[in-house]
Amino acid sequence: MIEASESIVAPPPVRNGESDGPDPRPRETEPASPHEVVLRARSGWLPIDWAEIYAYRELFFFLIWRDVSARYKQTVLGSAWAVLQPLVMMLVFCLLAVVLKIPTPRVNGAEIPYPVFVFAGLIPWTVFSQGMPGSALSLVNNQHLLTKVYFPRLFLPMTAAAVYLVDMVYSLGIYAVILAIYRIVPSWTVVFLPLLILMTLISTLGVGTILASLTLFYRDFRHLVPFLVQFLMYATPVFYSASTITASRPWLGWILALNPMFGVIDAYRAVILGAPLDASALLISSTSGLVLFVFGLFYFRRTERRFADFA
Questions:
Q1: Which of 12, 115, 184, 208 matches a 20 to 30 Å C-alpha distance to 160?
Q2: Where are the beta strands (DSSP E) in 181-232?
Q3: CB 175 within 8 Å of CB 119
Q4: What is the pLDDT of residue 25?
Q5: How many CA atoms lie within 13 A of 295 on its CB side?
Q6: Three-state DSSP class for 276?
Q7: Which residues form the ABC transmembrane type-2 domain (predicted)?
């Protein structure tokens, strides 16, 4: 009787340095798709996506709150610095007026106390002189956000400038106290003040958005911005009246009015104190500010695709 026995097949020998793992022989794979997808950034001048900005509006207000909270964090005086800075500058300009014997400004034939005159110019100038450099450095100071998360990049210079509108509220309150001390009643034209505040913000963003892109690409601009602010302060009627220039040299006044803050600051005094308004200077400065604003937005949008490469 012949007994049936199972045949045992021995496994293949294992070579030195190899393990008994999966079969190393290549497997058949699906053929690659004949269609190739190529992603390219759009070129040319791109429009502003206002719908996207509106969709991210909560983030915009959060960034403003973050910047406001961080400005005076771990300071003894806190938000009092928003009041002290324009007051100190007012005292410095008043001292210079005494030393340099600057004539007392007049409005409709009546003398205006110099603190009242100069503080009216310091209110918008403080927003511009701090908001514009803040916008210019906004991309450099937030490089870590440019490469990690997506959001409308325009929020960075916008929030950097909008933060100083909070300081303007404090300054307007202090100015109301100064007017009460000197017993000066604002003119009814003060109702147009919100339009001038809007023009101040537009001019600040116009210059700030252009410099924000340039500062990210060329870091030399972060050292040039303070010189630009200092130059514009002397070219802007902050501590002097624009009429002292335009009265004797009208052509020089038209050139200086290309500065977007020249006619705007003079208009602040006009609507608050009832002084004569230089409509031509305001028109030129407002047009200059609007042109810078529109160009700044489109230039920022055009260069936005390269931000991550320089961050």
A1: 115
A2: none
A3: yes
A4: 55
A5: 11
A6: coil
A7: 77-303
Q: For the chain, which ranges sit under pLDDT 70?
A: 1-46, 74, 76-78, 109, 311
Contacts for 108-114: CB closer than 8 Å, 24+ residues apart: 108/274, 108/275, 108/276, 112/184, 112/273, 113/182
Per the CB < 8 A criterion, the answer to whether 129 and 228 are in contact is no
Token output for 22: 């999966």
For residue 18, how many C-alpha atoms fall within 13 Å in the half-sphere facing its CB? 10
Residue type, 137: L
Answer yes or no: are the C-beta atoms of 249 and 112 closer than 8 Å: no
Beta strands (DSSP E) in the chain are 106-107, 110-111
Beta carbons of 206 and 289 less than 8 angstroms apart? yes
Give the closest residue to 89 by CA, choosing from 112, 120, 113.
Answer: 120
What per-residue confidence (pLDDT) applies to 38?
52
Is residue 20 within 8 Å of residue 14, measured between CB atoms?
yes
Q: Whole-angstrom Cα distance, residue 243 to residue 245?
A: 5
